[in-house]
């Protein structure tokens, strides 16, 4: 499935719809370069599942943030800084895989260890630099 996002409101709606349809145990691998909307998507995904909105920060330095939501715990990983798949064990990456919703930014290093039925979402800039193309596999 491919869609074009034309503004922040459409990205927010896409995040809300994705969260609404998310199942416990679902893993979302979020691909794309810096500045294409992955963290914005995650912020609105998580806040759509919370009664009280919270500040959702990218875990670029902490590597993992967790949020208690109406669908259980949501694990938000940012694997940008990892250099080896061996580091996944050190950050507790494998603990939540079978029990919770996972959102993984920069998932490339973890792909060999993820189930084959993950949801892959690719974020790219469209020809109009303000638009985003979203491809869901």
Task: Summarize it.
Helices cover 22% and strands 28% of the residues. With 137 residues, the chain is an alpha/beta fold. Helix 1 packs across helix 2.
Give a written overview of the molecule.
This protein is of the alpha/beta class. It has one domain (2-136): Rossmann fold, CATH 3.40.50.300. The chain is 22% helix and 28% strand. Strands 1-7-6-2-5-4-3 form a 7-stranded mixed beta sheet, with helices on one face. Helix 1 packs across helix 2.
CATH superfamily: P-loop containing nucleotide triphosphate hydrolases
Secondary structure category? alpha/beta
What's the CATH class, please? Answer: Alpha Beta
Shape verdict: globular
Our count of helices gives: 3
Q: What is the CATH architecture descriptor?
A: 3-Layer(aba) Sandwich
Mean pLDDT over all positions = 91
Reported by name, the CATH topology is: Rossmann fold
Main sheet makeup: 7 strands, mixed
In N-to-C order, the SSE pattern is EHEHEEHEEE
Task: Give the count of structural domains.
Answer: 1
What is the helix fraction of residues, given as a range?
10-25%
Strand content: 25-35%
